[in-house]
Amino acid sequence: MIKRQQALFREAHPAPPFWSVRFELPSPPTAGRFMLADLGGPLREVLFPATFEEGSFAVLVAPGHPATRLLPGTPVDMIGPLGHGFDIADAARLLLVADAAHLPPLLPLLQAAPTVSLLVEAPTRALLPPAGRFPTTVELHLLTHDGSGGHAGTLEDESSPLPSLLQWAERVCLSCPRERYPALAEKVEAARLHPAPRFAQALVQVPMPCGVGACEICRIETRQGERHACTEGPVFDLLTLREG
Amino acid sequence: MTWIELAPHHKTGLPISSPLMPAAGVFGYGECYRDLIDDEALGALVTNPVSLRPRTAARAPRIAVHGDTFVVHTGLPNPGLKRVLRHYSAAWARQPLPVIVHLIATTPAEVAESCTQISTTQGAAGIELGLDDGTSAESAANLIAAAHSTSELPLITRLPFEGVERLASAAIQAGTDALTLTAPPRAAIPLPTEAAEEIHCLSGRLYGRALFPLLLHRLHTWVPRLSVPVIACGGIATAEEVEACLAVGAAAVQIDALLWREPGIMGKYKLLKVQENL
């Protein structure tokens, strides 16, 4: 059942390179699911939760996002929770993989398993999130294109720590640009022999203006044909995502 | 309840109980908004555009926003008429609402074949034929004649934004039962790029509230000259704008992509009418 909910905007503050925006909402979405919020523009905005507290959730958005301009106490009309989120089942070793710009939707999973490793890639050190922002229980692996922080290179490079982490993990959750998933799927197939279905789950972040499968804008190509990201995703089995 | 007749010259007619319906392309095939929109607020259900053969989506990006307007270019993906009818026609037949299948007008032969399939399957109460922007008056007449040759269902013709003057008379003479004014206009919006000197645009259909005054002007100009019911479509976002369209003579209105932001508009119009009747 898809619900309309009235959220209350509570606060917004800088959390470089993002802004953190918190809403009070009785039924917030779980990791990988999303809300469609009416923030005054011609289309609703897609909001993926980054953190939860009792009866509220926070999102990390780009500076200048319309959510950062709300006044405390403003009611916000939301539709959701929508879509299918991450399913980590009872995995004991969880690997999270993201480029820094797409990291926020993975943050609710930082404490979702007994052992969590996070592999984050950014063009340069200044664009990496500060290490102090993560729980000390999370094993952090950093990659920068210019080598200014952590390993040098990209997730897909031969020297990347990704292959060894893939062999360690029981479940992998990814959040990267859609066009990188086919190459990352190849890495999974190279590192694991016959991985179980949904061993690697990828969040596809594309515009989803209606959220209910009506508008056909969020269609993505998969090995099973075209699928709606909003209703059949936005989390998909990575191995089903082929070149779009 | 006052019924609105969308096809007064048709032998069975196409009566609707409310002047509101979704525009083609914004509502799916009837199942998507079940939890968010009260069916009783709708007069009819217009399906997403359907073609005889399956179509895949256009390459992304498919939407770009500019201020209060946005451009959409989906490529009209659909699984093809046969699969749509197999999957949805039973549900349509159970609906209390009339279902109008929006058919992408391609060639007279394809339109004739499509209309045969639609009219021999239970569930559809009417067909809306979507004419392409470049359609000539002669082509429009041929497409409408093709639809009539194989289907006895009421036929609505949706005219392109720039084609009212060129096509309205021809469509009426060819026997359309009603006209939808209009499909969204074509427009282009620059896409964000990393290099300032590069400009890439997304071309497609333009949506937004800015279209409403254009629609009202068209209705004001054309409704008195047309001998068939007119369904207004373009930028309608509030119950008051629905009323304005009806006041200038539209028989019904279609809510376009603005429905995605405010699916409650249907219920708000119904509430407005209830309050007026108290």
General description of the model:
Chain A has 244 residues and is mainly beta. Chain A has helices at residues 162-168, 181-191, 229-232, and strands spanning 4-15, 18-24, 34-37, 45-47, 51-53, 56-61, 75-82, 93-99, 115-122, 138-144, 151-152, 171-175, 200-203, 219-222, 225-228, 235-237. Chain A has a 7-stranded antiparallel β-sheet, with no helix packed on it. Chain A has a 7-stranded mixed β-sheet with strand order 11-10-9-8-12-13-16, covered by helices on one side. A two-stranded antiparallel ribbon of chain A has the order 14-15. In chain A, a hairpin with a 2-residue loop joins strand 1 (4-15) and strand 2 (18-24). In chain A, helix 1 packs across helix 2 (181-191). The mean pLDDT of chain A is 93. Chain B has 8 helices and 14 strands. Chain B has helices at 81-94, 108-119, 137-150, 164-173, 211-222, 239-247, 258-261, 265-277, and strands spanning 4-5, 15-16, 20-22, 45-46, 63-66, 69-72, 99-104, 124-130, 155-159, 178-181, 186-191, 200-208, 230-233, 252-255. In chain B, the strands form 3 sheets. In chain B, strands 3-14-13-10-9-8-7-4 form an 8-stranded parallel β-sheet. In chain B, strands 5-6-12-11 form a 4-stranded antiparallel β-sheet, with no helix packed on it. A two-stranded antiparallel ribbon of chain B has the order 1-2. In chain B, helix 6 (239-247) links the parallel strand 13 and strand 14 (252-255). The radius of gyration of chain B is 18 Å and the shape is globular. The two termini of chain B are 14 Å apart. The relative contact order of chain B is 0.17. Chain A binds chain B through residues 1-4, 38, 41-44, 79, 178, 206-207, 209-217, 219, 226, 244, and chain B through 25-28, 32-33, 35-36, 48, 56-57, 60-63, 65, 67-70, 72, 74, 76-77, 207-209, 257-258, 260-264.
User: Helical residue percent of chain B?
Assistant: 25-40%
Which shape of chain A, going by the Cα principal axes? globular
The main pleated sheet of chain A reads as:
7 strands, antiparallel
Indicate the proportion of strand residues of chain A.
Answer: 35-45%
- The chain-level mean pLDDT of chain B equals 93
Mean pLDDT of chain A: 93
The rounded distance between the terminal residues' Cα atoms of chain B is: 14 Å
The biggest chain-chain interface is:
A-B, 25 and 34 residues
Kindly state the number of beta strands of chain B: 14
Characterize the overall form of chain B: globular
